[in-house]
Amino acid sequence: MAVFVALGAFLMTLAGGFTAQRVTDRRHLVLGLAGGLMLGVVGLDLLPEALEAAGTEILGVPAALVLFVAGFLFAHLVERLLAHRHAAHGAGEDARPALSPGLRDGRTPEVGLTAAAAMVGHSAMDGVAIGAAFQVGGGMGTAVAAAVVAHDFADGFNTYTITSAYGNARRRAQAMLFADAAAPVAGAASTAFVTIPEHLLGAYLGFFGGALLYLAAAEILPEAHHAHPARSTLLCTVAGVGFIWLVVGLAG
Predict the structure, then answer these.
(1) Which pLDDT tens digit goes with each residue over 76-93?
(2) Are 118 and 180 in contact (CB under 8 A)?
(3) Residues 179-191 pLDDT 10s
(4) Is the confidence at residue 97, as pLDDT, over 50?
(5) Measured in whole angstroms, how far is the alpha carbon of residue 209 from the centre of its chain?
(6) What is the largest CA-CA distance in the chain?
(7) Are 133 and 144 a contacting pair, CB within 8 Å?
(8) What is the reported pLDDT for 66?
């Protein structure tokens, strides 16, 4: 039953990704919406779940928040290391990072792939959550599945947008989208054999949330407003946050 329900998440993720592909002529609006969706997912969905699931404290601070900060710093460190490595291989002493072979318009494709891979991992955990909820009972499983399916449109949208925004080819972005769509099905199927302890799941959500917030605040949103500082871009960001708020509220 859990795997069958997870197929809904598969289709919803693909729908979000294909929507992102169709509006590439309004890239600043796409990035603005993606940033809002990411901010909403982190603040209104991932972090509350992480705080509830992790439970324990580290030196008086909730473990989920410690890992949230660690995830933010990890994403920053990875991006800086990749950018520095590509800049070091630039042509000539005065070569700027934007001219390095590993960059696309100043962006490191590996950062996009790393972020998309994290999204795939998160989607797999969504599938695990569906399977675990159905082990508790049909009502619980239905509620969790509805929440997952509802926000997987945003996951698909963000996975494709993040991958392509960092200069990856369309085919590579589509491959990451399909991986993200298949991940909930695989995660739900895995619960027939493995059960993940709740505190480990909470720790993962906190860490992933920090990394996702870094990408939204330090990369996606600044890029959205860089070339087109329009009011419509800001409205798309607010709409993205509002959409996630609505989804979380209805699912609750």
Answers:
(1) 887 777 666 555 555 444
(2) no
(3) 999 998 998 888 8
(4) no
(5) 8
(6) 63
(7) yes
(8) 94
- pLDDT score at 143: 58
Q: Name 71's Cβ contacts closer than 8 Å, sequence gap at least 6.
A: 206, 207, 208, 209, 210, 211, 212, 213, 214
The yes-or-no verdict on residue 69 having pLDDT over 90 is yes
Mean pLDDT of 140-158: 70
Q: CA-to-CA distance for 111 and 134, rounded, in angstroms? A: 35
Going from N- to C-terminal start, the domains of the chain cover 2-251
Token look-up 């990890």 returns 74
Straight-line distance from the first to the last Cα atom of the chain, in angstroms, rounded to the nearest whole number = 22
Single-letter code of the amino acid located at 1: M
Q: What is the mean pLDDT of the chain?
A: 77
Residue 181 tokens read as 């769509």
What's the sign of the alpha-carbon dihedral 70, 76, 79, 83? negative
Contact 122, 181 (CB under 8 A): no
DSSP string, the chain: -HHHHHHHHHHHHHHHHHHHHHTGGGHHHHHHHHHHHHHHHIIIIIHHHHHHHH--EETTEEHHHHHHHHHHHHHHHHHHHHHHHHHHTSSSTT--GGGSTT-BTTB-HHHHHHHHHHHHHHHHHHHHHHHHHHHH-HHHHHHHHHHHHHHHHHHHHHHHHHHHHTT--HHHHHHHHHHHHHHHHHHHHHTTT----HHHHHHHHHHHHHHHHHIIIIIIHHHHHHS---HHHHHHHHHHHHHHHHHHHHH-
CA distance 57 to 65: 9
Which residues, other chains included, contact 244 with Cβ-Cβ below 8 Å and sequence gap of 6+? Answer: 36, 37, 40, 41, 44, 45, 151, 154
Name, of 94-103, 128-137, 180-189, 195-204, the range with top average pLDDT.
180-189
